[in-house]
Amino acid sequence: MRFSRLLACCAIAALFSSAAQAQSVRDRIGQSRQQLDPVTAKTQALGEPLPADATKRTWQFMTEFEVPEFEADLKDCDGAIERFTAYVQAYNKRVDDFFAGPVEARKIKADRGRFKYKIRPIDGRINRYIDTFDRVGTTNSLSGFHTREDDICIARNQYYNILAAKEGLAAFKRLYPDMAELDPVIALADSAMEAIGGREAIEVQVEKNRAQALSEVRMRAAVANDPQREGRFRSGFQQAFPDRTYLKQSLISRGWVVYRHWLTGRVEYSETESQIASKLPDGRCFLTTLSWTRHEAWTGKSGDRFRSMYDRQILCENL
Fold it and tell me: Could you give the number of structural domains in the chain?
């Protein structure tokens, strides 16, 4: 009896030990998947084989089917494109593998209406990509706050998204070669690719837009005349940017804006702003929106503080 009890205890302990090990393995797998970016995770998922059974593999393929979409990464634009290229290659291989094996024709036929519904937003997406591409680097796209590299990355994002749509449409065409709704969308994608051109054309377009946007930048008109405030702004600016040459400024606040505590109504701080034109040692001119904040003593932040809200380049001849 004691021996059987001991044996049972050992079996239970082994069971818990193996369960704990299995859970540990699952945790490690889960952690490794969480560390993957979404595109790489999709690429790996597409590498998993489809079931051998015609019905099961058709159901799985049709359920997971989607039109690829590219996600830009401004911090690693080239890396994002490399990851996306690997994803598209895996995507196309998945489509090839599906058609290379047995398929359930009835399932494909039954899903025709659902896939026709999936086509509807694609032309809108392509038009949105074209519109964004045309505006990258212009005043409307806030080019003053993007670097040249960021603008080029954003433009390439639109280019690769149109490429992605073309890959999805090609897969649609293989599923439903007689679907008339596909032809105008494919033609739209083709014309968009032709209009954009290659990688060098993308950079030329961005440079053209940025140059046009820069030529349109102007200094804001002053809304007040206060020599005392202007003098304090000038000294605060020169302390913050000792390497720049002060040129001129425009007060863009009529006076002080007072901010009060939401509950007590006590004044916390007051703020006023000015736009200051300056020249860098390399000869370029910039407009800096400078905020002057004056905190009350009871807040623990008493004193005057100056901070740059943002910089924007301006052609020196436009000052």
Answer: 2
Report CA-CA distances (Å) from 99 to 104, 111, 115, 255: 11, 16, 17, 71
Residues 162 and 248 in one domain: no
Counting DSSP H helices and E strands in the chain, the numbers are 10, 5
Query: Which region, left, alpha or beta, applies to residue 39 given φ > 0 means left and ψ of -120 to 50 means alpha?
Result: alpha
pTM: 0.72
- pLDDT string in tens for the chain (319-residue length): 444 444 344 443 443 343 444 344 344 434 444 456 777 888 888 888 899 999 999 999 998 888 888 777 788 888 888 888 898 899 999 999 999 999 999 999 999 999 888 888 999 999 999 999 999 988 765 555 678 888 999 999 899 899 989 999 999 999 999 999 999 999 999 999 998 887 789 999 999 999 999 999 999 999 999 999 999 999 999 999 999 999 999 999 999 999 998 998 898 999 999 999 999 999 999 999 999 998 887 877 777 899 988 889 999 999 9
At which of 189, 215, 241 does a domain end?
215
CA atoms lying within 13 Å on the CB side of residue 180: 0
> Is 96 in the same domain as 189?
yes
- Domain of residue 287 covers 227-318
